[in-house]
Amino acid sequence: MTIGNKEFQGIVTKLKEWIQLNYFDIIYNSEIEELSSRQINSKIIGRKNITVIVKTTEGFIFGSYHQNTLKITKNLLPIRYKQNGGYFLFTFINFYGIEPQIFYTSKYQDYMVLYADDSENGLIGMCSAYDLRVSKSTFSSEFSFIYDTKYTSDLFVGKTKPNTFEISNIIILQWY
């Protein structure tokens, strides 16, 4: 189940409103390119204004926006790329059926997790949120404690770690 054209246009319209940028390039699409950490890293490292959009096999759509440039200072992966603001999580289609929303954390700094290029399963993650893998991805039970929300952590995919979900499609956009 891929993100359809009409569905994609709805997502882009809402992201434009949230991000306040009007133009984007699709820099990664797992339907066209290899689903691997190497491929994802090659598309996002050194870039800013990145949106990761995920669709699960159950049809849920969520993701994150990262305003700051993703830099690697050492060739050590996996790494936790510390984000000092300029990011948020979002949901479009979710387990609770609520309208699309964005979520910020004011309690802690957050981290994007980049896996080593040769990782067999790990793809990309957000601490206290999602951990995307080729197989058996998870969503953290810590989300509702770290982010400013009235919803519980199962909002995004209907389950939390240790329960898993499968990815149908990942699309990464760069905004300008």
From TrEMBL:
**Pfam families, per this entry?**
TLD (PF07534)
Query: What residues does the TLDc domain cover?
Result: 8-167
User: What is the designated name of this protein?
Assistant: TLDc domain-containing protein
Q: Which organism is it from?
A: Entamoeba dispar (strain ATCC PRA-260 / SAW760)
